[in-house]
Specification:
This protein is of the alpha/beta class and about 650 residues long. It has an 8-stranded mixed β-sheet, sandwiched between helices. It has a 7-stranded mixed β-sheet with strand order 5-4-17-16-18-19-20, sandwiched between helices. Strands 21-22-24-25 form a 4-stranded antiparallel β-sheet. Helix 9 (about 170-180) packs across helix 10 and helix 12 packs across helix 13 (about 310-320). The structure holds adenosine-5'-monophosphate-propyl ester.
Length: about 650
């Protein structure tokens, strides 16, 4: 959707929802936090850094040489110790860290003491395999406890992990392993997806054959399916289980790389977003505690994101564990074992805080009120949303049907690059407008500006002060780091999103203003899908746009022209093209609709006019076509659109 269309659609929300009085009365954070951080932002973040255990205190809170920041300079700490040892040392070893729920119904309860032992064993195993501080380890796992254990084991020995979402293809894995030069891959035979085991190892086998940097592949047994075996492969149980269950962790510099997480940009090549230790952990711990009003002794917290995405990193692993929280970890899809599976889990574990994505909420809306209605959801007290704009209708439904009208909703805006939440209400403070993330959190500074970089009420979202969890760079690509985030507006981070202040100085996020799509809260670049399509032998050219979709936020729509020798055998070709994209990137990138057209609309200079294609994809009259080199192309596309079934 174009920025301007959004602006008018969202400008008149006048409903307000006050924080529940009871929650406000005992809230972790009050309005004072804004005053404190406004008075002295750096002092505010120092106070938050004191939530952590430091082996050596920092000498300087921030060294800012735009666009490079160092936070808590000279400080030393270990992220894994902060998430585990210190809680056990504080007598909280018996507290549950994770209630794991597998898709087939298997469960596992892991206390902090047990998690520490598992992580220690895994850290010892990685050391035995030759992994050292500063190395990279690729993690390609289902959402099982070993994913968190592997991440924390890497952190413990100072190696950076690069988690690759299990839905990505062998090719995507190759690109990421090679870019990071990863030494070890941690994977599983498979995971459970919609009631059936789904393999992971074959993609790793294919990838490792092309990645000489990988010396060992650790394989967790999850599904017991048949797997091919090479001399680099080792079963997790064979090497981890025999290790000592203690491990003396070393403290690392605050700026020690903690992880790389690859995300889509506006070109075909994914970017390895680099996060470091001290600042990242400070901000994820603070925001997890403040935004969810976490009471670690009593809350049962559930973030539904997969660890393959940044939300899983910051709010399923590092944030909750740094805070000593009890979390639910659920492997499967929302409809595995029944469309009320989530609500059954909420009821069974007495979940008090739920953090999920608008796509899921809209899907549940479609499934009907009866499913959540048949379960006891009265344990819930705070509801979170993340990943895409939440439309007011979904917000209200979430509040009424899931939250029983009692629970505040925190709509949290942030990105892989920001590492932690940036814009969000505080549940005990903010009077919320449905569909708005309201405003920057304490310690965070945003500016909405126009093309010329001047502050304005509607335009581009920028972050005009450094923040502790900010990305420290793009792995091996300083030029791209500067160009992507820091070149458009001098000295300021450009987020790629449009935003608007309304008449009450409330902030509305308006979606991406670049060629990045957001499908079910997953970031996919149009160029990435286009290059996947043109790598198919039948395709001459491809243009991809994100079209509004009632459930997934955006859906991928591809316009494709064929090579003259190619045969258009209708559905068979469309299916082949979708499968090809799944193979090149992953099933999440499969276009919802593919339209074979004789030509693409281009300007006289040869630029594809995506704006027109977006109009077509969203069923609108096409806008201005006067700049087209050949205006008749439009008629041909429209005709095609009228006759296409297009969807899976
Ligand atoms: O467009 C914004 C959207 O998701 C993008 C970041 O995607 P990713 O790095 O994958 O991280 C997603 C999880 C943090 C942003 O540029 N986005 C994320 N949260 C919101 C959002 N858009 C509107 N409202 C949100 N709460």
């Amino acid at each position: 959707m174009g920025l301007m269309t959004d602006l008018s659609a969202l400008s008149h929300e006048s409903r307000r929802f006050e924080p529940p009085a009871e929650l406000a009365a005992s809230a972790n954070v009050t309005a004072e936090a804004y005053e404190q951080s406004n008075k002295d932002r750096l002092a505010f973040w120092e106070t938050q850094a004191d939530r952590l255990l430091w082996d050596r205190r920092w000498d300087e809170v921030l060294d800012w040489q735009p666009p490079f920041a160092s936070w808590f300079v000279g400080g030393r700490l270990n992220a894994s110790v902060n998430c585990l040892d210190r809680h056990v040392d504080n007598g909280l070893g018996d507290r549950v860290a994770y209630h794991f729920v597998g898709e087939p119904g298997d469960t596992r309860t892991i206390t902090y003491a047990e998690l520490l032992k598992e992580v220690s064993k895994a850290a010892n195993a990685l050391t035995e395999l030759g992994v050292e501080a500063g190395d990279r380890v690729c993690i390609y796992l289902p959402l099982i406890p070993e994913a968190a254990i592997a991440m924390l084991a890497c952190a413990r020995i100072g190696a950076a992990h690069s988690v690759v979402f299990g839905g990505f293809s062998a090719q995507a894995l190759i690109d990421r392993i090679q870019d990071a030069n990863a030494k070890v891959v941690i994977t599983a035979d498979g995971g459970y997806r919609r009631g059936a085991p789904s393999a992971l190892k074959p993609a790793v086998d294919e990838a490792v054959a092309q990645c000489p940097s990988v010396t060992s592949v650790l394989v967790v047994k999850r599904t017991n399916q048949e797997v091919a075996w090479s001399d680099k492969d080792i079963w997790w149980e064979d090497v981890v289980d025999r290790q000592p269950d203690t491990h003396q962790a070393e403290a690392f510099d605050a700026e020690q790389p903690l992880f790389l997480l690859y995300t889509s940009g506006t070109t075909g090549k994914p970017k390895g977003i680099l996060h470091t230790t001290g600042g990242y952990l400070t901000q994820v711990a603070y925001t997890h505690w403040a935004v969810f009003d976490l009471k670690a002794e009593t809350d049962v917290y559930w973030c539904t994101a997969d660890v393959g995405w940044v939300t899983g990193h910051s709010y399923s692993v590092y944030g909750p564990l740094a805070n000593g929280a009890t979390s639910v970890l659920y492997e499967g899809t929302p409809d595995a074992g029944g469309k009320d599976r989530w609500w059954q889990i909420v009821e069974q574990y007495g979940v008090t805080i739920l953090y999920t994505a608008p796509t899921a909420i809209r899907t549940f809306m479609k499934w009907g009120d009866d499913l959540p209605g048949s379960r006891d959801l009265t344990s819930l007290r705070v509801l979170g949303s993340v990943g895409e704009p939440i439309n007011p209708e979904a917000w209200i439904w979430y509040r009424d049907v899931i939250g029983g009208g009692r629970c505040p909703i925190v709509d949290t805006w942030w990105q892989t690059e920001t590492g932690a939440m940036m814009i969000s209400p505080l549940p005990g403070v903010t009077s919320c407008k449905p569909g708005s993330a309201m405003g920057p959190l304490p310690g965070i500074s945003v500016d909405v500006c126009n093309d010329a970089g001047k502050s304005t009420s509607a335009g581009f979202l920028t972050l005009n002060e450094p923040w502790p969890a900010m990305l420290r760079g793009i792995w091996n690509d300083e030029a791209r780091f500067r160009e992507t985030y820091w070149s458009r507006f001098e000295g300021r981070y450009f987020a790629g999103d449009g935003a608007k202040w309304d008449e009450d100085h409330v902030l509305w996020l308006l979606g991406r203003v670049d060629d990045v799509m957001n499908v079910s809260g997953h970031r996919i670049s149009t160029t990435e899908v286009e290059s996947a399509l043109v790598s198919h032998p039948s395709v001459a050219e491809a243009a991809v746009v994100g079209a509004n979709d009632a459930t997934t936020g955006q859906a991928i729509v591809a316009f494709v022209t064929l090579k003259s020798a190619a045969v258009d055998d209708g559905e068979a070709l469309l299916k082949a093209l979708r499968e090809h994209v799944a193979k090149e990137i992953g099933p999440i990138a499969k276009p919802r609709t593919i339209l074979i057209t004789p030509e693409l609309p281009k300007t006289r200079s040869g630029k594809i006019m995506r704006r027109l294609l977006r109009d077509v994809a969203e069923g609108r009259e096409m806008g201005d076509v006067t700049t087209l080199a050949d205006p008749t192309v439009v008629n041909a596309i429209n005709e095609k659109m009228g006759t296409s079934s297009g969807e899976d």
